[in-house]
Specification:
CATH architecture of the largest domain: 3-Layer(aba) Sandwich
Number of domains: 4
Order of helices and strands: EHEHEHEHHHEHEEHHEHEEEHEHEEHE
Number of strands: 15
Number of helices: 13
Largest sheet: 7 strands, mixed
Length: 433
């Protein structure tokens, strides 16, 4: 009942406000891309200069009258504002325009509702929609308000409204309970991966930066990727084998956007926690985007909201194919550690550098090399095999085993020091320094 939407193609008038606080400023180009992603048929983008928003309409009454005439002349079905509207502002504008009015949050919610594919994704979207709708519920029952009086206007208006609010609260509790189970299941899966010592790496970044294209290129997957905002909504995990490191779990996550509605951050917390519990974040950046610095700041802001600001980050500058005279490369910090990688996910240039950089950053806690074990250490040799840490075995002239192993340093220390020895006494060759 609550979520019926048109199949797209609605004639939409876009209203963008200029002159506000620079921190609250929205991008009109991005606004148009959002509307197109929702399936709107854009009639016109109207830019309104207003330094002080009004309480009644957000914009001035003169501009409202001007827009009303445009709505009628162009047979507009929907007016979308590139800003957050209060419930009363939405109500007032709808009365004047005599058509539906949507704000930026409602527009993003609608895109999310169209993109959700999994049961979990649909639950998360419904939660965000219900919480957004709870403040606007009164609009659906204005024809039952007692205050108006008159024939046909009296009756159980408040009772019906209270009934709907109660049903809304019940549904919210149900969804939150189900999402809590999803959250618990994800945490169990993460604990399993930690026990198996499989590092997790999450792709994060601004929407349409090319995360899914990079994900597909690295993992040979076929996750939906398109040149549109919020093409990916449901998280996807794949196992990836890296040279000199072994298996990792790579996660493709929902893209961020400036002023991402707080309701969405809360609703998608179960999904976003996949990023906050990762060993490494790959921050995918559109290298061709003129406003990429602002986008980087927005991503870091959302990472702070989900408690992921302290995690190690490798910046991946994507879309190298759109730049001239820039070659794939790894840029390092003062300590020599990878800090930034330049790649093109579309044509595959530089993809091997991403794997190399991940292996270097995650390999600090991993021993990859050869151990020499004399015949008296047969029990220790058997333990390495039982852990699945041995990649190959050879023997030298005195009969000692030369084990090519890969395992965390903490496990190597635990096994060797238990017999009163130092790990370095067995190391014949250490690949990662």
């Amino acid at each position: 009942m609550f979520f019926e939407r048109h199949g797209g193609g609605e004639r939409a008038l876009l209203v963008h406000l200029e002159g506000q606080n620079p921190e609250a400023r929205e991008d009109p180009q991005e606004f148009q891309e959002l509307a197109l992603s929702a399936g709107a048929d854009i009639v016109q983008l109207s830019t309104v200069t207003r330094h002080q928003p009004t309480a009644k309409f957000l914009i001035g009454s003169g501009k409202v009258e001007e827009l009303r005439d445009l709505v009628k002349a162009e047979h507009v079905d929907l007016v979308i504002f590139n800003h957050t509207l209060t419930p009363s502002q939405e109500r007032n504008l709808e009365r004047v325009f005599e058509c539906r009015v949507l704000d930026r949050t409602g527009l993003i919610l609608d895109i999310f509702a169209q993109r959700a594919r999994t049961h979990e994704g649909k639950l998360q979207v419904e939660l965000a929609q219900l919480e957004h709708m709870s403040t606007r519920l009164v609009r659906g029952w204005t024809h039952l308000e007692r205050q108006k009086g008159g024939i046909g206007m009296r009756g159980p208006g408040e009772t019906q409204l209270e009934t709907d609010r109660r049903l809304l609260r019940v549904r919210l509790r149900q969804i939150k309970s189900r999402l809590e189970k999803v959250r618990s299941q994800r945490e169990q899966a993460r604990r399993g991966r930690r026990r198996a010592d499989i590092p997790s790496v999450s792709l994060v970044g601004y929407t349409n930066a090319g995360k899914s294209t990079l994900f597909n290129a690295l993992t040979s997957s076929d996750v939906y990727a398109a040149d549109q905002l919020f093409a990916t909504l449901d998280p996807t995990l794949r196992r990836l084998e890296l040279k000199d490191l072994g298996p990792i779990v790579l996660a493709d996550t929902v893209g961020f956007i400036r002023h991402l509605p707080h309701k969405l951050v809360e609703a998608f917390r179960a999904t976003l926690e996949e990023s906050s519990n990762s060993d490494l974040l790959l921050h995918v950046i559109d290298a061709h985007e003129p406003e990429r610095m602002e986008q980087i700041e927005q991503v870091l802001e959302v990472l702070g909201e989900i408690g992921a600001e302290g995690l190690p980050i490798l910046e991946v500058y994507n879309k190298l194919d759109l730049l001239e005279e820039v070659e794939p490369q790894i840029q390092r910090n003062a300590d020599g550690k990878p800090e930034r990688v330049w790649v093109s996910a579309r044509d595959g240039r530089g993809l091997e550098l991403v794997g190399q950089a991940i292996a270097e950053l995650l390999g600090d806690d991993l021993f990859v090399g050869t151990l020499r074990l004399g015949q008296q250490f047969a029990r220790l040799r058997a333990q390495f095999f039982s852990m699945g840490a041995v990649q190959s075995e050879a023997h030298d002239e005195d009969g000692s085993s030369l084990l090519s192993v890969r395992l965390p340093w903490v496990e190597l220390n635990r096994l060797v020091t238990r017999d009163g020895h130092e790990p370095q006494a067995f190391v014949a060759q250490h690949t990662l320094q």
